[in-house]
UniProtKB/TrEMBL annotation:
It holds the Pfam family HK97-gp10_like. NCBIfam families: phge_HK97_gp10 (TIGR01725). Residues 30-73 are annotated as: Disordered. This is HK97 gp10 family phage protein. It comes from Limosilactobacillus fermentum NB-22.
Length: 127
């Protein structure tokens, strides 16, 4: 699928098309990577035996959130974590307390997501 370029104007136009294509694919790859990580975070977030959190309320895993795409500096990123309703409690089971050992499920989700996220990036960024 080669493109024959005859002259400076055509070369510049070809680079501009390629730049737009790469930017679109990079944005898609970032969004898809965020979805992969969010799914792993939901899976790794602890629940009690009843499927709820310890207070009997909706489990923390149901409060994951994908933020908005940011890329003002040229680096694309999307924050993934928990919403404001329950997010503030995530650090207690993750980091532990005096009455509860640390479970490190956020770090586990990050480690387990690394390869699938990178595979999704490679898939999405193919030209």
């Amino acid at each position: 699928m080669g493109v024959t370029v005859k002259g400076d104007k055509e070369l510049i136009a070809a680079f501009e098309r390629l730049d737009k294509t790469v930017d679109t694919k990079a944005r898609k790859a970032t969004r898809d990577g965020a979805k992969v990580f969010e799914q792993r975070l939901k899976t790794d977030t602890p629940r009690d035996k009843t499927g709820t959190d310890h207070s009997g309320m909706t489990p923390l895993a149901e409060h994951t959130k994908i933020g908005n795409l940011r890329g003002s500096t040229g680096n694309l990123e999307i924050p993934v974590g928990y919403d404001t309703e329950k997010g503030w409690i995530a650090h207690f089971p993750n980091s532990g307390t005096s009455k509860q050992p640390a479970q490190h499920f956020i770090e586990k989700a990050q480690a387990e997501s690394k390869r699938p996220v990178m595979a999704k990036f490679v898939e999405d960024l193919k030209l």
